[in-house]
Specification:
single chain, 322 residues, alpha/beta, 12 helices
Amino acid sequence: MRTVFRTLLLTASLMVGLTVQAQPYPSRPLKLIVPFPPGGNVDLSARLLVPELSRELGQPIVVDNKAGAGGTVGLDAVAKSAPDGYTLGIASPINHLAAPSLYPKLPYDAIKDFSPVGLIASVPMVLVVGSSSPVKTVQELVARAQSRGGAMTMASAGSGSGNHIVGELFQDATGARFVHVPYKGSAPANTDLAGGHVDLHFDQLSSVLALVQGGKLHALAVTTAKRSPLLPQVPTLAESGVPHFDASTTLGLVLPGGASPELVGRLNAVLNKVLQRAAVREQFLKLGAEPRPGSPAEYAEFIRSEIARTARIVREAKITLD
């Protein structure tokens, strides 16, 4: 009788174990770590996605803003979470692509410690000058910079910021040289630009759109391969004589490193389905962003190439954090 009882107990235990293992994913709420404060472009993009992803996955998704150290605090929290699909993270250029070059004691490996799910969206940078500037085209800007021997000034949101790095990429591509003037954020940089105190600035479309439309700044070009629907009259840098130039603030969805290919594939399919909805695309466009559906492999290659490109620029331009 004891043998029979033990057999029944063992069978029941195995059945319970199989039932637990067979639970469909996800079976409980998820957490999305946003490594920046509420209200910014990254946070708004994440909160735009969350209701749609939640609907597709059938579970609530809680947004957890973990700001600090240029977004590296939040991304570190993602890296140190279990790769079970219940903790997701938003990766950006500063905390994922530039961080390995800018932070000598970065607490995570930007490649090994994450499982790329897919790109979310990209926000073009815009090359802007003050409305009173004599420069009206990119070619005029480059010619003027060369004639003035590097005396023109280029604002940024701070040393090592995305604005700064794109400006260095532009100098690398054109041979023009500018004096870098770092500010504590884009807003004061654009205020001084509009006032004629600095000569140019590369900034996110979402930050300068109202200033361009209001006539306070003049847009020379967008930094992406395609024109922006929000500024259709403004050419790309490639159209303006800077071949193959393509740079933007690009956000991606990541899991902790070691996530299974099946889990990554499931979340990628859900993400792409959401990004391809007309209503979602329209909301991203209002933020100045372009949805970027694609595969995990494409996102992984993007990460590798951008980390390498950024590292070269940081090294050659001797960029350090403020």
